[in-house]
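GTPase Der: structure tokens wanted.
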Amino acid sequence: MFTVVIVGRPNAGKSTLFNRMVRADDKIKAITDRLPGVTRDINYGLAKWDNKEFTVVDTGGFFSEQDSEDSIHKQMLEQIQMAISEADLIIHLLDGKEGLIPHDLETARKLRTTGKDVLWVVNKIDSPSHLSRIYDFYSISPELIPLSAITGYGFEELIEKILERIPPTKSTTSEEELPKIAIVGRPNVGKSTIINALLGKKRMIVSSVPGTTRDAIDAVCTYYGKKYVLIDTAGIRRLSYYKEELSEHVYVEKLAYFKALRSIERADVAVLVIDAIEGIVNQDQKIAGIVAEQKKGLIILINKWDLIPQNEKDKKAKFFADEIKRKLWFVDYAPYLTVSGIDKTRLTKVFPLVDQILEDYSKRVSTSELNKLFNQKLKDVVLSSGGKELKFYYITQVDVKPPTFVVFVNDKSAVKQNHIKFIEKLLRETFNFKFSPIEIKIKQRK
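Answer:
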């Protein structure tokens, strides 16, 4: 996916611009709040404008090497350089209120040496009356975009500049058309062992040291003549860990987390691996939450089943069935399996589940069928919600991957989460959306 990276000195307004670009409502904030830090670390989000999507990366303040005498600043600089290396477009955000400083010129020089496409954006131009603030920055580039990340002044022009740089969708190669499966989970739950078993050969490094796999690695495998791309990701550590003092080890793990998020974005289906001995922990819930928020298909694998004593397997299976309902209720559509990467127990069931998820993921239902359901279940039904009268009019499907539906009502503010869950249940039961995530949007009919 096209990637836009925002860089600049500390306090130039990068995070404010990031939030505006990804339209940081509660849903997006839930993702960015999970990422380490606010000013030190990389924040990652998905932006959608005019039917185009692109990745936005918010970096920490861009310190110079001279300012980076301590290890934290050095690691921050390395993080930013890593993000820049993956960028298709860089936004150099300049502080129009503070004015031009030598560091801005140094950063601009370094960005030019990357050969990347760069937009020079002067922030804190809150109104046309402040346009004189940009004059100093013409020494960096004759093409400057004035902007106020807070008020939105100049924002439409910036978005237009970004969108015109996103290439049209090209016909994909055969490998790009293959179903993509991201193997995700905490460190040391057995992800690489599972992917090696699925591949039938030792493709990944397997170690008892948590976080051995630090990068996403793609491998193509074949199951009964059908090919799939498996993406092995670095283990995602508990997020409180990232708030501790940075060390070289922590820095590597932070980059691994960033790459794991990108792997989930690339995938059609995520396979969440959980340790059968440790059970479902808080971080497993958070990873599942990231997958759910990105509306990807999900399969849950309870791994290391070979370590469960034979006389306890039935009891343990019932325990996990209850635990999944209780702790992962928000992905109640996701199938789960008890497996062993070591002895390959039930791993052959993964690919048929992927196929079924992808079939549901791409399913379309005609508007006539949808409204036949609405006429049977919701026509002329008037609900009271917080003293407001709520009436459902009609429904239509507007997209797939995931199946996305728009429901028209008389009063959008009266629609509560329980109403949406009820409609989702109707759709799943009526049209057999068994394992796919579903997105339901509410619109008020004028």
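The domain at 180-361 is CATH 3.40.50.300 (Rossmann fold). The radius of gyration is 24 Å.

Cheers.
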